[in-house]
Design goal:
heterodimer; A: alpha/beta; Rossmann fold; GMP Synthetase, Chain A, domain 3; 4 domains; nine-stranded mixed β-sheet; 13 helices; about 30% strand; globular; B: mainly alpha; Non-ribosomal Peptide Synthetase Peptidyl Carrier Protein, Chain A
C-alpha cells in the first residue's frame, strides 16, 4: 500500500511510467498520461515561478485543466510558496484576490502560464503548520470570506477519506470545480496522494459522462478479452465527484448502460441531496450516492448513503453535539482550533447519527422590528404554486427586504399586469401573519432555483438577482441555464424603472432595439466569455415591441467565423417572450488575438 | 394643472420609495396609497414626508391625523401640494 499522507508528498517518488492522468475521450492508446509528464510539468511551472519571484510567495491560481492545476499547485508548494484559489474567474473575484497575491497563475486573464517544455522538478519541504492554500467562500450573505488551510488540516481530512473510501487506483471523474475545497480534496489531492487516476478535464455535462463511461466500459471489455494489448493501465473503475445540481438533472434518455459496470462510487456535496434526487441518481446510474456534509470553513463533517441510513454519520475523529436550540456544535481535526465551534445548521441527534433540520433561524431587524426570515420563507411557501422562497436582506436597502420565489411554471408572471397581481396577492398572504413594514418590496420570480455549481444560493447569485436595483440601465436578471460552453439561456424582465423607457409619458413606453442588442452583448461577455471588438450587426429584427414588466428569455450562442476558424466570433441572439419573439440578430466580433 | 402635478407626484412616490414594479398608470387618483391600494406603510409615510419637504417645502407633523388625511390618496396629496407649496 502506498503512503497516502499529503505531508509525505507521495508524488515525488511515484513510478514515472504509471499513469496519473486519463484522457477519457481519446483513443485507448493515447488515453494514459504518466507521472513522468506530471513531473515535467511541475518542473516547467517551477522554472516559470523562479523567473517571476524568489520563493515564499503567495499566488492566485485559477486553472481548469485538473492535471495542469495539480502541477502548478505542487510546483508552488515544493518551492515554498502558497496559493489562493478564487472561487471563479469573474473580474471582481480575481481583483479581490489580486490585492493579497504576488501574481496570477493559470488561465485567468493576465495569468502566467508555464512553457510547454518539461522541466526537472525540485523538491522542498512541506511543513505541517505551513499555509498550503487559501480559499474564498461565497457565503449566502455578505462578502466572500478567506479561509486558510495548512498542510496538516488537508492531510488529516485526506487520510480520513482515504481510509473510508480508498480509491484503489480507480479513475476520478469530476463534475465540480477544484477551485472549491470539495473538488480540490476529492478530485485533485486524493488521486495524487493515493496514486489513482484523474480525468484530464472536468466532465460538465451528462452527455459527456455517458460517453466517457461507455468508452471506458468498452475499453475494459476489450482488454479483458485480449483484443487490445497496448493499454496495460485501463482504469478498473470510476469514482464520480459530483453535486446535487448535476444529479438532479440527470436525463433518463441518455445511454447509461455502462454506468453500473464502471462506477464504483458517487460522491455528492455542496448541499443535501433530496430523497427524490438520490433515488433518481441510483435508478439511472445504478450506484447509491455517498453524500458529504460540510463546508469550506469546516471541511467534511459527516457522510451518508440515503438508501442505507437517512441520518448523517460523523467522519472519524469528528465530535458532534447540539444545544437547547438544536444548533450543531462541532469539534474537528480538520479545523485549526480544538474548541467547539457553533454551526449555522440545526440538527436532531439520533441513535444512528444525526438529521439536518435546516438552517438556524435567520433573525433580522427590519424597520426596528425583529423578524424571522425563516418563518417568512415558510409562510411564502404555503401560497399556492410557490415551490420555494427565500427572503433576503438587501445590503443597499437596509429597511426593505427582497424575496426570491420559485413558482410552478404556469404561475410565473409574463407581463407587468400579471406581476403586479401576483405581488399584490403575495403581500396580502403575508399580511395575515406579518406587519406591513416587513413585507418584501423587491420580488424575483424564478422557474428554477438559482443555485451556483455547488447547489447553493450564493451571495453572488443573490447580487445578480437584485443588481438592476443598482443601475437603471440593466435588465432584471433571473437566472441562466447553460447548454454547452457556447450556448446559454438568460431569463430577464424589463424593469418598470428602466432609464431607457422613461420620459415618454403619453406614448406607450417600449425598450429601444439598440438597448436589447447592448444587453445581448453584455450578457454574452459575462456568461459566455465573449471577447473581441464589436465589428457589425447582421440580420437584426425586432418583430414585437418589448414593454416594461415583460418577461423574456434571451438565447445566446457563440460561433466562430468562418466555421472552424478562431479569429472572429459571431454572437447569435434571440429574445423571446412566451407569446412571440421580440428581437433576433447576429453581432460580429473581431478577435483581439495575442497582441 | 392638476394632471401635471398628479403625474409629477406619481413619479415622486415611485422614485422616493423605489417601487420597482409600479408605473404611474398603476396609481389611481382615488385609490388609497397606504395599506390597501398601493400598499405603502409607515416607513414610506416618513420618507414621503421628507420628499415633500425637500421638493415643495411642505412641512408635515409626523404621524398626525392631519398628515394621514393628506396621504389618503393621490387627489388629496395633490390638493395639499397645491395649497401649501412654497416655490
Amino acid at each position: 500500500m502506498t503512503d497516502v499522507s499529503l505531508l509525505s508528498a507521495p508524488w515525488r517518488n511515484a513510478p514515472s511510467d504509471r499513469p496519473i492522468g486519463w484522457y477519457c475521450a481519446a483513443p485507448p492508446s493515447q488515453a494514459a498520461v504518466p507521472w513522468s509528464i506530471l513531473h515535467g510539468r511541475i518542473g516547467a511551472w517551477q522554472a516559470l515561478l523562479d523567473s517571476l519571484a524568489p520563493p515564499g510567495q503567495r499566488w492566485l491560481l485559477h486553472l481548469r485543466a485538473p492535471l495542469e492545476f495539480a502541477a502548478a499547485l505542487i510546483a508552488c508548494w515544493e518551492r515554498g510558496d502558497s496559493v489562493m484559489l478564487p472561487a471563479d474567474d469573474r473580474p471582481e473575484t480575481l481583483a479581490g484576490v489580486d490585492r493579497v497575491t504576488e501574481g496570477r497563475l493559470g488561465d485567468a486573464p493576465r495569468g502566467h502560464r508555464a512553457g510547454p517544455d518539461a522541466g526537472t522538478p525540485r523538491w522542498g519541504t512541506l511543513d505541517t503548520d505551513a499555509l498550503a492554500l487559501s480559499l474564498y467562500t461565497s457565503g449566502s450573505s455578505g462578502d466572500p470570506q478567506r479561509l486558510d488551510k495548512c498542510f496538516a488540516q488537508l492531510d488529516a481530512e485526506l487520510s480520513v477519506q482515504a481510509r473510508l473510501w480508498p480509491l484503489k487506483g480507480r479513475l476520478v471523474i469530476s463534475q465540480v470545480s477544484h477551485q472549491h475545497i470539495y473538488g480540490l480534496l476529492f478530485a485533485i489531492l486524493r488521486p495524487l496522494c493515493e496514486r489513482a487516476l484523474m480525468a484530464m478535464s472536468l466532465c460538465r455535462y451528462p452527455e459527456t459522462l455517458s460517453d466517457w463511461l461507455a468508452r471506458l466500459s468498452k475499453l475494459r471489455h476489450s482488454t479483458s478479452t485480449g483484443l487490445s494489448s497496448d493499454t496495460p493501465n485501463v482504469p478498473s473503475g470510476v469514482v464520480l465527484i459530483t453535486a446535487p445540481p448535476p444529479l438532479e438533472r440527470l436525463p433518463e434518455e441518455l445511454d447509461w448502460r455502462a454506468a453500473p459496470q464502471m462506477l464504483s462510487r458517487i460522491h455528492s456535496s455542496g448541499a443535501p441531496l433530496s430523497q427524490a434526487a438520490s433515488e433518481h441518481a441510483l435508478r439511472i446510474l445504478g450506484v447509491p450516492v455517498s453524500e458529504i456534509y460540510g463546508s469550506s470553513e469546516t471541511g467534511g463533517i459527516a457522510w451518508r448513503i440515503q438508501q442505507h441510513n437517512a441520518c448523517w454519520t460523523p467522519f472519524s475523529g469528528i465530535e458532534i453535539r447540539d444545544d437547547d436550540q438544536g444548533t450543531l456544535w462541532l469539534r474537528s481535526p480538520f479545523l485549526d482550533t480544538a474548541d467547539w465551534q457553533r454551526q449555522a445548521d440545526r440538527i436532531s441527534l439520533e441513535t444512528s447519527g444525526f438529521r439536518l433540520l435546516g438552517r438556524v433561524d435567520r433573525i433580522l431587524k427590519v424597520g426596528g422590528k425583529r423578524l424571522s426570515l425563516t418563518s417568512m420563507d415558510r409562510t411564502l411557501g404555503t401560497y399556492p404554486d410557490v415551490l420555494q422562497a427565500r427572503t433576503i436582506a438587501l445590503p443597499e436597502r437596509d429597511t426593505r427586504l427582497g424575496a426570491i420565489v420559485q413558482l410552478e411554471p404556469q404561475s410565473i408572471p409574463q407581463d407587468h399586469t400579471a406581476r403586479r397581481a401576483l405581488t399584490e396577492a403575495l403581500r396580502h398572504h403575508l399580511l395575515e401573519t406579518f406587519e406591513s413594514t416587513v413585507i418584501p418590496r423587491y420580488w424575483r420570480f424564478v422557474e428554477a432555483w438559482p443555485s451556483n455549481s455547488q447547489g447553493k444560493l450564493s451571495g453572488t447569485v443573490v447580487a445578480h438577482l437584485f443588481r438592476d436595483l443598482q443601475s437603471r440601465r440593466l435588465p432584471r436578471w433571473l437566472g441562466v441555464e447553460f447548454e454547452g460552453d457556447e450556448r446559454c439561456r438568460v431569463t430577464l424582465e424589463v424593469p418598470e424603472r428602466l432609464i431607457y423607457v422613461q420620459g415618454h409619458f403619453d406614448a406607450k413606453p417600449v425598450v429601444p432595439g439598440i438597448v436589447i442588442v447592448q444587453w445581448a452583448i453584455e450578457l454574452a461577455r459575462e456568461h459566455l466569455g465573449l471577447q473581441g471588438e464589436f465589428h457589425r450587426l447582421e440580420r437584426i429584427k425586432f418583430p414585437r415591441l418589448l414593454c416594461p414588466g415583460d418577461r423574456v428569455e434571451l438565447l445566446l450562442f457563440l460561433s466562430p467565423v468562418p466555421p472552424g476558424g478562431e479569429r472572429n466570433v459571431k454572437l447569435v441572439f434571440t429574445l423571446k417572450g412566451r407569446q412571440a419573439t421580440h428581437a433576433s440578430g447576429k453581432a460580429l466580433f473581431s478577435s483581439i488575438g495575442d497582441r | 394643472m392638476a394632471n401635471a402635478l398628479e403625474l409629477e407626484l406619481k413619479h415622486l412616490i415611485i422614485d422616493t420609495l423605489e417601487l420597482e414594479d409600479v408605473t404611474p398608470e398603476d396609481i389611481g387618483r382615488d385609490e388609497p396609497l397606504f395599506v390597501e391600494g398601493l400598499g405603502l406603510d409607515s416607513i414610506d409615510a416618513l420618507e414621503l414626508g421628507l420628499a415633500l419637504q425637500k421638493t415643495y417645502g411642505i412641512k408635515l407633523e409626523a404621524d398626525s391625523e392631519e398628515s394621514r388625511r393628506h396621504f389618503a390618496n393621490l387627489k388629496s396629496l395633490a390638493a395639499l401640494v397645491e395649497e401649501r407649496r412654497v416655490d
